[in-house]
Amino acid sequence: MHKDFITLDQNIPINGISCYLVDDKTFLITSVRWLRVLSSAAFGGEMRRARHIINHTVRKSYNCDQPDQDLDRLAEKIDLDGGVVGLMTAVDVRQTVVRSGIRKGLAVAVACTVGTGNACAARLPVALGKNAAAPSSLSVMLSLL
Predict the structure, then answer these.
(1) What is the pLDDT of residues 44-93, one digit of tens each?
(2) For 5-137, where are the E strands, in sequence order?
(3) Taking a C-beta distance cutoff of 8 angstroms, is the pair 35, 51 a contact?
(4) Element holding 75 (H helix, E strand)
(5) Residues with Cβ < 8 Å from 77, sequence gap 6 or more?
(6) Which of 55, 136, 141, 145 is spaced 20 to 30 A from 63 at the CA atom?
(7) Do residues 55 and 43 lie in contact, with contact meaning Cβ atoms separated by under 8 Å?
(8) What's the Cα-to-Cα distance from 6 to each of 1, 24, 61, 101, 139, rounded to whole Å?
(9) CA-CA distance, 96 to 101, in Å (whole number)?
(10) Which of 40, 48, 93, 92 is nearest to 68 (CA)?
(11) Partners of 18 in the β-ladder
(12) Would you list the domain boundaries of the chain?
């Protein structure tokens, strides 16, 4: 991987899966083989194949009609070669929780961040009232191998 990425020792017992921290704002999961991914991600959502999953910290005031374009630019900036799924969170991604395991030949890895100030569904419009808090999210990155 890129020399400026910080390797995170997450003790993932799945060969070929690695986690990195990029510029203290992006949690990156990479795989040497293609993964089947089902997600509600802003970039690369739905069912697809990917080798990289990013979760990027944004300001709590972040408001953009096309977050997929911001994530696409980020993927290009950090030289990810296609096959990218991208999520955004106002949570500090350095607080990402990663758990994994293998049972009966099925390998599972999950990485999560949680913002609970004002929970909402990803990729759906949010109506904010006068006194409403900004939307919050639960970002879950799950890989089954």
Answers:
(1) 888 889 999 999 999 988 888 899 999 999 999 999 987 999 999 888 99
(2) 6-8, 17-22, 26-39, 46-57, 84-89, 97-103, 106-114
(3) yes
(4) helix 67-77
(5) none
(6) 141
(7) no
(8) 10, 9, 27, 23, 21
(9) 17
(10) 40
(11) 30
(12) 6-144
